[in-house]
Amino acid sequence: MINVKLRAGARGVAEITIYDPIGQDWFGDGVTAKKFRSDLNALGAVSEIIVRINSPGGAVFDGVAIYNALKEHAAKVIVHVDGLAASIASVIAMAGDEVIMGVGSQMMIHDPWMLAIGDSDDMRKAAEMLDKVGTGLIDAYAAKTGKSHSEIAEWMAAETWFTPDDAIEHGFADSKVDYSEGVEEKVAAQMRDFTPFATPEKFRAFAMSRVSKPPQTDAGSLLSASADAPTPEGASTMKPETADPSANTADIQAAQAAARKAEKDRRSAVRARFPGKLATDYASLLAECLEDMECTPEAASDKVLAKVGQGVTPMRPEGVIVPDADARDRFREGALKAMLSRTGHGERETGNEFNGMSLAEIASHALKLVGVSVKGLSRDQIASRIFASQTSSDFPQLLSSTAGKVLRAAYGNFPNTWDKWAAAGSVSDFKAHPRIQLGSFNSLDTIAEGGEYSYGSLAEDYESAQATTKGKALALSRQMVVNDDLGGFLRRAQLMGRAAARSVNAGAYAYLNSGSSNHGPTSTDTGQYFNATAVTTAGGHANLTSSGTALSVASLGVGRIAMAKQKDKSLREVLNIEPKILLVPIGKEDLARQLIASETDPASSNSKVPNIYRGRFEVVSDPALDAISATAWYLFGGPADVAGFEVVFLDGVQSPFVDEMIDFDTDAMKFKVRLDYGYAIGDWRAGYKNVGA
Fold it and tell me: Are residues 139 and 193 in the same domain?
């Protein structure tokens, strides 16, 4: 049974009791986030919520979700730590507008644990995930205490326990409970009775008889037990003895301190053998190991491994335990889907709590998740908080992700045609990278029995490929948040994505038709890419028909033969390049498609003469060519085989990159869109141009 009781009292006051581990165990016990939020919502409108905690912690993400549920609630939250608020239970306590420590209570914080199985990569991923989880917990502690992240991280790494006074001093609590005078005197008297021991052994024995078992049991706590209270089952029955009057007080205190430290170190090491969910799944075994002073950490490991392995049949040797997404991850995912669907860029997800939210409402939710109060704030005030330079909310990243998805979708939907006749390449930096052109070895030699292999020569040409940065900026102003102008913002992102794709495509055609008479860039051999000069002359490429002929079976044959007869640099080997692409201005597209689809040669008076090029070429057209020449057409080899041109991208990334930055001076969120790319000659032998007619 989940021990969470919610009851509404007079004047709209509710009380919540969390006296169990956080998260559901194998037996169905524990405080789950799902049940907690359901019960919390069932309260309706209350003005004040009192939360009483006595829990050792448990499942991190259930605890984080409970923390956020309390932080989001409109009521004032008052947390009472009745016994123990340890591990993730201490994070839940941080949700209180006021935190009150009970007499003898403790609060403990530590780094998150988990159980991971797999290879070294799995272990590294698990460690990275734990680091991210720890950062999220630090955010919750920092929001309450005002302490620095580094100081809290040190406390967590050391597994730090806080008494009521310690918790108040460091900001984890606001006050401690003010019991009646009689109760305080009784507690003080008990403490005096517990003090006088002459040896560490006697102190440890007595302490173990009085210290409570972990809160998941029903044992009493140290400060609430009286000297006459019955001994907890399984605890030592040794009674306190009268101190030796001659014992030195300093020696007694030193012995007591040593005993406390030794037992604390043992218990801490034992707890470390029950990482993550194991602490709640096997709470009784953990309690048993903690109570048994003879149980070493190594013995605890053996016990927990034996318990975990009971009835388990290994199915596969690898795998890793993956936790659920935390509240911030769920917010980013849900809000992203809602924003995209709202503007027609995605499907509406049923049950998504962020559906229909305005920009200001989403911003408000983002602020709450990082502990920023938004109660009573107007839209303008919320927008101002978001644009504050010190804000660490997820809102900028969320807007960046939304804009990036819309922008990249528009980029991908643009009808690019450059990739039909040019190859997409990759460079690792912004330096010029050599590209080896077509070349070939000499023909293979006949090797006699026992003969030696001769070395062939390879004459090579090099062209250079280099990427440069192209980009634009996009802004979301405070006024756009207040006016809820999400559609206008994403429309700008969409147009920018289309412009980015258009820039790459237009640049490729400009490069193809650059240089003198639009015959392309100059190669490293000093010849323009397309020229009619014989290849026996320096810089000659013999891949241009400058007199110009209209598209026909005959003119296609001239171009095909010219490409097939191209030779390597040494002029010894015929490369036999087969054209695959027929590139034409869009004004010639219909003619080109009719020609390639025709069963017979349209120019022949004999209707039975077959069209030998039927279906042989892929027709590609683009209006960028019409602005340069309405008649010129081209043949290219297949880019995957022999590329005439290449468009290179930094690290092969063809999609635009979007990054965000809050400009505190202008109350705007700026988004930087960039794409790193460039153009290069692949090999002039793989291309042919006819100026047309």
Answer: no
Rounded Cα–Cα distance for residues 4 and 451 (Å) = 89
Same domain, 58 and 86: yes
d(CA 327, CA 92): 13
Q: Are strands 48-55 and 468-477 parallel, antiparallel or unpaired?
A: unpaired
Domain C-terminal end among 176, 196, 230:
176
Other CB atoms within 10 Å distance of the CB of residue 196? 18
Burial of 112-131, coded b for 16+ CB within 10 Å and e otherwise, reads bbbebeeeeeeeeebeebbe
Among 148, 176, 204, the domain boundary falls at 176
Residue 339 counted as domain residue: no
What CA–CA distance (Å, rounded) separates 643 from 682? 5
Number of independent structural domains in the chain: 3
The answer as to whether 264 is a domain residue is: yes
| Residues 68 and 123 both lie in one domain | yes
Nearest-10 Cα torsion for 106, 111, 114, 120: -160
Q: What would the two tokens of residue 362 be?
A: 């989403």
Pick out the chain residues at pLDDT < 50: 1-11, 180-247, 312-325, 389-390, 440, 458
Angle at alpha carbon of residue 253, lines to 250 and 254, rounded to 5°: 85
Q: Are residues 26 and 130 in the same domain?
A: yes
Angle, helices 486-512 vs 395-413, to 10°: value is 40
Residues 52 and 61: their CA atoms lie apart, in Å, by 20
Contacts made by residues 172-176, CB under 8 angstroms, sequence distance 24+: 172/90, 172/93, 172/94, 172/99, 172/107, 172/141, 172/144, 172/145, 173/81, 173/93, 173/99, 173/100, 173/101, 173/107, 174/98, 174/99, 174/100, 175/98, 175/100, 175/101, 176/100, 176/101, 176/102, 176/103
> What tens digit of pLDDT does each residue of 171-205 get?
999 999 865 444 444 444 433 433 333 333 443 44
Domain annotation covers residue 539: yes
- In this predicted model, what pLDDT tens digit does every residue of 363-398 receive, in sequence order? 888 888 887 888 888 888 888 888 764 456 788 878
> 323 lies in a domain?
no
CA distance 303 to 310: 11
Residues 59, 188, single domain; the answer is no
Q: Containing domain of residue 654, as a range? A: 462-690
Q: So what's the pLDDT on residue 300?
A: 83
